[in-house]
């Protein structure tokens, strides 16, 4: 039985707490969050202790592992402390908005031999995982091009934009990880363009963008392109396409049902997409937690690492620089 | 060069005349129709002679074959005369609304060794033909069930309903032929139900139906079901599905383009269907004519025969009787 | 909190026990099954009491409701006892293989005002439920035709066939319920054909069929057709199509992922279907239990009733008779 | 009646000759090609004069318009001569492999008020045209992102690669025109990456690429990305996707039929794609010719212009430079 404390009782903390509670090999020992009401609700729902101090939760002798779902600027401190105490860590991305801080933290974790998994949840989605498996099984030969479409249903609130670190570090980073994972090689060249087409006044204020495209190229020439938009009125659009030397892998977005409506005006119209990440990746969050628990229980390597977090963030930094300089940036 | 006269300059006659004109192995010699204006327009468009008397057209020494697209009650007379004169015939279905007359005409054609092809155009549609070929190629093993959905975009005019011979002889007959063709065996048992859901007052007047279902069973137990409706607001719905012992064959309806529209209300909505038979089966009509010309030019058997016309009509008769008696009718 | 005992610890009992345990408004008090090992495993997994006597479980004062997942020939006895003791019941279909017994049991339940829900799980599938809701919302106008394709992935074992009551009472009954539900009216005329195409020797032995078609007609003329086969090599095929006066509703089967593979031989090939009812209807079983618990907790009518069970079985009887007599049978 | 001479009797010349012959408002007067056998075959098939000298064909007084389907290095000379003689021109792309020459030729045409249409055939494909119309009709609001996937079924012969002008000028140019057309604004920034993943030895020899991606940005920030590969084993892949402020437009590739095969291994597998441009764009070539003839007959502006050819070629030049310099290039 892996005994786990979840740090943070916000939107993502709640998801993780429920996933731990539902995992037969894990036990949710505690939930920690300075907001007393929130933490009590989550903890009570699963019969766990409610705590206000995350560091105390980490230090508990009856805690084997922690899940970090707190604000980004606390990630490095909590992760480092947990690793020092020999606790396994599942940490939400990004490690830190600052690449140097992230690099330092990752180096520290690696020096200490810490077991840290970065929460790139999409890798655990059944469809994305099946695509990766199909590539591994040789069903499309050598990968040549990866095309990623990733669009949010709508602009986040201004306050979120302000503290997000910008679209590349906040949103594109998931796709950069997906690109690395599907390419199977590290990108060495990054080009990006950025536009303000949804809410120009807001994004100018923060020197940010709402609509971006990033191209990536590996040393052997494999290519990927990511297209992001902060607003897709039709829902949370999450698609990848992988062109290989002997085939192509694609997939459909998810909808609540598979119903299709045909009328005099249109045929086979499907329902709107599952609207945002909590719905779209509900299965992936559970599978991610199960993979974390399994890695601990079986003493196996973490399926994603703190290094993955650094590498994705570095690609995001390159994209930022590419937009600023108008140059393809060498990683 | 096969020299052809097209009898009838109405909707279907025009189609056939254009198909003959476009076939490099055929020559459109004449078009015959009592309506002088109509026939002149069609004939002139293709540089053929316009005639008002179909029998005269048949008798021309420079005519090798005739296409009968005249009113149903003239089919038997024209076909018989053409066969007597040794001309090949492509005849629109049905042979006659009366099964005894049809049987007699067919027996006569067979006795004389006449080359008569019945115009079951759907067999020449690329998709339906590919399904038949795929069955022949063993891609789904032994056929077990055939499901046919065939719906018109809207009720025909009252005058048409009056002289149509009823939905089973006029509309279902195409599907009965398709069922025979896809089953690969003759049905021996026919059950049918009929309803008046679209225009009850009109159909009661003619003891006819607008919505019907027919089930068929062959001696070895293979099954087919046909569902028809005279009105599908979304267009001309033409689908078959074949369940075999090792697989399933289905297909999509056709639309003018493959565009899909996604909005806040719906995703991947496709365009309305090609609206009626002239559009939906444009390719099939040409391929049907090409098959007719090829059979003549190469001295090969007709791809469909007058017997096919009789057998489909007999199944339609059985369906009529089944609705009337509430019994499954043995063919 | 609704306190529930699950009767039967077999395949379906396990599903129901887990659904009760996962429902926050319900408590799994006991699981009863004469097979001691099976019942202990299920009970322990959810912290419930393991019992060997179902009647004792029903009688427990700390049990408000029972779920009957025992062999068919015990359904009536358990249901009747539970109703007499004022317990709510969720009963697997069929009530009994004998229509007279079923009718008697239903009449008794109704006389006593018992709260009995028949487990027609498909009504709780999100897609089928959305289709029903869309009809209710007027999205396709008046229903005209319902086409149901329902095929099992493979023949059940001979022992199952022997005691199943025949394909119409065992397999088609689900589709007959679905047809009633989607038609929104009671069928008054039933025609059926039956074939032995998968395993003729076995089915002849039990005077049963493996491939059947049933057509239904309501008093107002609405039509439905069901096509069943005991073997579809491509998996558990579960589709309905509803033609209305202003539109059409269809849907896709479910697969483990939405991945599509394109190679030199084929394009956009999807994965095999979810293979059988436990996988395909996993969500429906949970939703069914939630609906049962909600109806009890809120004192509302059961979403399906013992009468639904009788009516579906009666349609199955008519189908059996129709195959035997070659007549359309009036319900 | 528009009297037309087709210059060039190769693959594309044959297509154009047949399109002219099939157009009721046009007359194919002559076909010109130095290869006597080829030109005789084409000319005879349509009852036109066979000529060996294109300049002579242009000069014929019974020729109103010419279609230039000759080798690229003859385009400017023929086009210029035709315009000087007041003949309308439909010219295959590119105008010339050299941007300066193209610019000069275009300026000359514009100075003389010549009627020149550049053969960007894809704009006349029914699906692409419907997408453009849907954008114009406001069905997706303001365009934000265009994603173009355009992949050939296989590498062209080495001789073709040698004289093609490189992938950007030869293949991507079609997509660059499509991007301009769908964006509805001129791109001002071009970034590109190029790889050699299919046949590196061959392409290194000519300093060319087989796998490329190009991103484009307009002054208002609209974005497009093109991904090309010279080899897609699954056929000729031709897709666009347009994200707008209120919706999304996508479409399917075309196949010979709409048949779908389901087996124990896969479900709903579709047929391979129409394999290359002659099949895929058969309808578009005819519609292109019809648009050309209509523009002449009705005295209306050409639907595409020589300027479109220059602008697409300029974007291709920018892409070449971007790959070489690793910079986003300002147009």
From TrEMBL, chains A, B, C, D:
Pfam families: GFO_IDH_MocA, GFO_IDH_MocA_C. Coiled coil: none annotated. Keywords: Oxidoreductase. InterPro entries: Gfo/Idh/MocA-like_OxRdtase_C, Gfo/Idh/MocA-like_OxRdtase_N, Myo_inos_IolG, NAD(P)-bd_dom_sf. It comes from the Bacteria. Belongs to the Gfo/Idh/MocA family. This is Inositol 2-dehydrogenase.
């Amino acid at each position: 039985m892996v005994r786990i404390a979840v740090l943070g009782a916000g939107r993502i903390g709640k998801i993780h707490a429920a996933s731990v509670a539902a995992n037969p090999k894990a036990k949710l020992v505690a939930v920690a969050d300075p907001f007393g009401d929130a933490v009590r609700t989550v903890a009570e729902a699963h019969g766990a202790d409610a705590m206000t101090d995350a560091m105390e939760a980490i230090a508990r002798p009856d805690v084997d592992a922690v899940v970090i779902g707190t604000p980004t600027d606390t990630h490095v401190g909590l992760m480092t402390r947990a690793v020092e105490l020999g606790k396994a860590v599942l940490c939400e991305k990004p490690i830190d908005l600052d690449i140097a801080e992230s690099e330092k933290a990752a180096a520290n974790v690696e020096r200490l031999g810490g077991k840290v998994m970065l929460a790139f949840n999409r890798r655990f989605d059944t469809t994305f995982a099946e695509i990766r498996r199909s590539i591994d099984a040789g069903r499309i030969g050598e990968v040549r091009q990866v095309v990623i479409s990733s669009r949010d249903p709508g602009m986040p609130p201004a306050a979120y934009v302000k503290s997000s670190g910008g679209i590349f570090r906040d949103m594109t980073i998931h796709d950069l990880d997906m690109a690395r994972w599907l390419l199977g090689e590290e990108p060495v060249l990054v080009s990006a363009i950025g536009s303000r087409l949804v809410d120009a006044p807001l994004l100018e204020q923060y020197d940010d963008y709402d609509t971006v495209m990033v191209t990536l190229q590996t040393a052997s020439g494999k290519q990927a392109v990511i297209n992001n938009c902060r607003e897709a009125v039709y829902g949370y659009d999450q698609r990848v396409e992988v062109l290989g030397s002997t085939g192509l892998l694609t997939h459909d977005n998810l909808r609540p049902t598979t119903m299709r409506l045909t009328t005099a005006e249109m045929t086979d119209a499907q329902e709107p997409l599952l609207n945002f990440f909590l719905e779209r990746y509900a299965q992936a969050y559970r599978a991610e937690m199960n993979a974390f628990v399994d890695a601990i229980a079986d003493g196996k390597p973490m399926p994603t690492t703190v290094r993955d977090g650094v590498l994705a963030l570095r690609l995001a930094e390159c994209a930022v620089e590419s937009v600023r300089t108008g140059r393809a940036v060498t990683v």
